[in-house]
Amino acid sequence: MEIIVSYNKNRTIKIFSNIEKLANHSADFLMKRVKDKSAFDNFSIALSGGSTPKQIFKYIADNYAENIDWQKLKIFFGDERCVPPNHNDSNFKMAKEELFDKISIPDENIYRIQGEKEPAKEAERYSEILKSNLTHQNNLPQFDIVMLGLGEDGHTASIFPDQIDKFYSNKICEVAIHPQTNQNRITISGSVINNAKLIVFIVTGGKKANIISDIFSERDSSTMYPASLVSPKQGELVWMLDTEASQLLDSEIKQAGIIL
Ligand code: 6PG
Questions:
Q1: DSSP letters along the chain, please?
Q2: Ligand 1: does its nearest atom lie under 6 Å from the Cβ of 52?
Q3: Ligand 1 atom with the shortest distance to the CA of 208
Q4: pLDDT of 199-243, one tens digit each?
Q5: pLDDT tens digits, residue range 55-106?
Q6: Which ligand 1 atom sits nearest the alpha carbon of residue 48?
Q7: 90 lines ligand 1 (CB under 6 A)
């Protein structure tokens, strides 16, 4: 069973009873968008990091390896930890193991953030990569899809609450520092995130329920969360939530939904 809530123009929440259903539906949703557009043009997606996307990548590899024209898909990353590509913290490593190694996507279609390089130089290099490999809108590179996760402190991509100014940076990519681990990160800025045609937030687990509730209730306190600043200029925003992450949402948000 899933609850689909269109809570206002171009904003949709989908709530799933468990992570498996969320992952499978999210993968199907993403691949349908890829199929629809790649029939006539290249498609660009920025993958999110962390652990949540793992099941989505696995489902895509298991179910779409043979029926997507991978030549038409350009895969980027919304953020990366500043570690080598074979490091267990690397978002690229997880995506490679769960997806890239199982599909016939050309190596040149995968645009890795080189976490092993000097951060400021890599942020600059990756900004140039985005500028030269994406279409432009509002004088910024524009992704067809940006996938995002939500941290337990309200961060998204690698824009953290104590560096929230980086959300509205006029740069395409920024260097950030994880507030707990002091790990350097490269991240696309919020300006690029909000320029996407479609943003898909994928959030699971009860630890994020308070933040989800704050963001959707638009409480003043929510603006301290970078994730609350995600609001596509012209595009769509879809939240994929499991019942744990959505448990504190106001009932009217849920009741407005269509229960399938
Ligand atoms: C990263 C991510 C980050 C992540 C959230 C959620 O590199 O860590 O891009 O924004 O999406 O921290 O992570 P989980 O999916 O592991 O909860």
A1: -EEEEEEETTEEEEEESSHHHHHHHHHHHHHHHHHHHHTTS-EEEEEP-SSTHHHHHHHHHHHHTTSS-GGGEEEEESEEESS-TTSTT-HHHHHHHHTGGGS---GGGB----TTS-HHHHHHHHHHHHHHHSEEETTEEE-SEEEE---TTS-BTTB-GGGGGGGG-SSSEEEEE-TTT--EEEEE-HHHHTTSSEEEEEE-SGGGHHHHHHHHHT-GGGGGSGGGG---SSSEEEEEEETTTTTTS-HHHHHTSEE-
A2: yes
A3: 17
A4: 999 999 999 999 999 998 877 777 899 999 999 999 999 999 999
A5: 999 999 999 999 999 999 999 999 999 999 999 999 999 999 999 999 999 9
A6: 9
A7: no
